[in-house]
Amino acid sequence: MALRAIRSLWLAGSIILLTGCSGGHKRSPPDAQVIKLWVGPNEAEESFWKVAVAQWNASGQGLPVSFTTIPTSGNSEETVLSALVAQTEPDVSTNIFSGFAMQLANLKQLEPLSSMPGYVDLVERRHMTKLMLNWQMNGNVYAIPLYSNPALIWWRADVLAKYANHQIPRTYEDVYQLSERYAAAEHHYGFRVFAGRSWEDRWFDFIAFYYAASNGRAYIENGKATYDNAAGLKVAVFMDRMYKQGWTAADFDAGDPLVSGMTAGAVHGPWDLGTFQRLYPGTMKNIVIGPIIADMGPEAHRATFADSKGIVIFRSSKVKQEAFAFISWVLGNEQLNLLWLQKTGMMPARDDLLRNPVFTDFFDTHPEARVYATYVDVATPPALNENTIDIQKVMTQELVGPLVYRTKAPQAALDDAAAQTDKILRIHQ
Amino acid sequence: MRESIGRISEVQIGALLALSYLLFSAVFWAYPFIWLTILSFSDWRFFGAPSFSGLHNLLVVLRDPDFWGGLWNVIRFFSIYFPIAFAGSLGFAFGLKHIGHGKAFIALCFLLANISSGVAFSLVFTKLFSSTGPINNFVFSCFGFRIPWMSDPTLAMLAIALVVAWKFIGYYGLIIYSGLQTIPRDLYDAALLDNTPPFKRLLRITLPMINAQLIMVMVFTILVSFGIFTEPYLITGGGPLGRTNTPLMVIYETAFRRLQPGHAAMMSVIVATASYVLIRIARKLMERDVKLA
Asked: How far is residue B121's CA from residue B185's CA, in Å, rounded to a whole number?
């Protein structure tokens, strides 16, 4: 009896295993009656798309849209890639950063959106002509930015009141003075210079500082590193001095340093506004937001890094035109742009946020968000390059890391990083 | 004599059960490994059919400083991790042998570390070792300086080795403990009659008699050294300056972030070969066929 049970179990297991492995590469029959959409895997974005998709489907303007969040527990890129390989990708996906869009475009997986009828009209209607200059790849646009979040610096108002006469630091010298006083009085740090050890973190330290110092000049141009210049050196010298004097720490992994008061300032994006209001309302009341520091006049409208994700249509889609009609309708709809702002707190990628009356009430009641909106027009996305990871890993290992751990002088670190980047880009060409 | 129960014999039952494992291995080990080997000599970027590219992937990998840095870091990690894990698990096993009551509870406590989520405890240790974390705040308040756990290349590797050792000491210790249990008491009695000192008993009786378990632990430490990913990925992110980057981290990034699965496959084959060779060498040097006369 027991043996019969074992035999049956074995047979059943084998059949399940074999049937489970078969046909893995076959695409399920295309459902041309629905536009399949993947959206960013977070509650705020999901709640926006729920409303937007319901409105579109109710309007009867085109094919109905069916959406889900990107089915990932980790990062979206891997999930999108896995779906493309398994041929289970949707028609449209949001949450695509420019470097990944470039990789997918080079692998011929994306539809050029700039050749779609209505593209020019959409760009004009959404006031994003200038913003789109940073999204052009070899004369085409494969991803349209949904949002563009400037990186700005949050300061503890109580620390500024005690050690900086309530003035928000805007120059390197301001930060030095604040750090010196704060460190001497309370053994704390003036400013979080190093955003983290991962390659992505360079967007929130060196690249943001470099954009501010260079008025938004690209750090990679024509397949070469361009940050080994006067602006790059100013940033490197600033970082070097902060570590040399002990005014900042190599990591703040123990907890958010603004909450603990371990530092007086740190770079943050607008997505943190909601998080802080929910988790640390006491700290949030005590935060003032300022521009990225740079060695220029206090009133200068200085550039910064833009954390920006785009929306793409996959080349395999059978409903490309219909999908673009939907994208065009969502992005071009001012009320939906307002809804996006309300639900996510992230800045729609349009440069009329402070001029357009549709957004006036929101910014009047959300002064911190208004500060972010002020910088959308000068917020610059990452260099459009397929080798983003390698470029920023070199930046970490040859430039920022040696300054943090004080193993190289600023100019030497810049020279080495630029040379190594050029070498890698040459290999990949 | 072949016993038969019902219509099938015991031999058939054995074959049937073994076949399940063989089938499992064929699907989840052999097939991926064959595919990996093919891929390592192919030009393929996830889409379309792979095309044979000869030694191109090998040449690219040979010029990749990240990968070789990762392999060097394996040696650095092993040289710190092995003594800690080995001494710790020996200590645990000897301690467990001499405990009168509560053995199961103590063993369970150590094993809990082994079954804990790597992600969860990595996050806890990240906060503990942070330059602004509780350990450093305490040190700073007492002595006026902070220990650069994450910013000094050697200390960062030591921090990771301590975390991984904490996870595996209980597991390795139980393996060694099982060996200690099998040593006949008579051997020690005879040694005592000869007035053999304790250290000599350890060297001449205990360690040789648990050679098989020690080799097993050593093989496991080599495999762990080549296979660590979660702890350095989450605790140090490969830093400082790439000094805790591991081959698996480079392979993961190459395959899924640089979108170069062919290069990553070649790296995997090199790592698999290196770990296999190292294990063979270690066994050749250390393994003894211990038999009681």
From this structure: 40
What is the rounded average pLDDT of the residues A396-423? 94
In DSSP terms, which residues pair with A305 in a beta bridge? A380
**Nearest residue, CB atoms, A197 vs list B19, B238, B259:** B238
Phi/psi of residue A313, each to 5°?
-115, 130
Reported pTM: 0.83
In this prediction, residue B6 has a pLDDT band, given cuts at 50, 70 and 90, of: low
* A-chain residues near B47 (CB < 8 A): 84-85, 107-109
pLDDT in tens, B129-176: 888 888 888 898 888 888 888 888 888 999 999 999 999 999 999 999
A229 DSSP assignment = S
| E strands, A170-262, in order | 189-191, 220-221, 224-225
Residues of chain A contacting B151 with CB distance shorter than 8 Å: 250-251, 404-405
Residue A310, strand partner residues: A96, A145
Res A363 pLDDT > 90: yes
Q: Which domains does chain A have, with CATH numbers?
A: 35-149+306-380 (3.40.190.10), 152-303+385-428 (3.40.190.10)
Domain ranges of chain B: 41-286
Main-chain dihedrals φ then ψ at residue A367, nearest 5 degrees = -60, -30
The rounded distance, in Å, linking the Cα atoms of A329 and A336 is 9
Do residues A361 and A66 lie in contact, with contact meaning Cβ atoms separated by under 8 Å?
Answer: no
pLDDT digits (tens, 9 = 90+) for A56-91: 999 998 999 999 999 876 678 888 988 998 889 999
- In this complex, the residue of A13, A197, A252 whose CB is nearest that of residue B20 is A13
**What are the pLDDT digits (tens) for A174-213?**
999 999 999 988 888 999 999 988 889 999 999 999 999 9
Q: What tokens appear for B288 in the block?
A: 């003894």
pLDDT at B5: 55
CA A235 – CA A254 distance, rounded (Å): 26
Residue of B nearest to A390 (CA): B258
pLDDT given for residue A153 in this prediction: 97
Sorted by sequence, the CB contacts under 8 Å of residue A208 that are 6+ apart come out as A151, A267, A292, A304, A305
Cβ contact (<8 Å) for A249 and B257? no
**For domain B41-286, which architecture applies?**
Orthogonal Bundle (1.10)
Please give the average per-residue pLDDT across B72-91, as a whole number.
Answer: 95
Least confident of A305-314, A405-414, B48-57: B48-57
CB contact under 8 A, B47 and A85: yes
> What average pLDDT is seen over chain A?
89
Q: What is the pLDDT, as a whole number, of residue A357?
A: 95
Q: What is the pLDDT of residue A255?
A: 84
Are residues A371 and A289 in contact, defined by beta-carbon separation less than 8 angstroms? yes
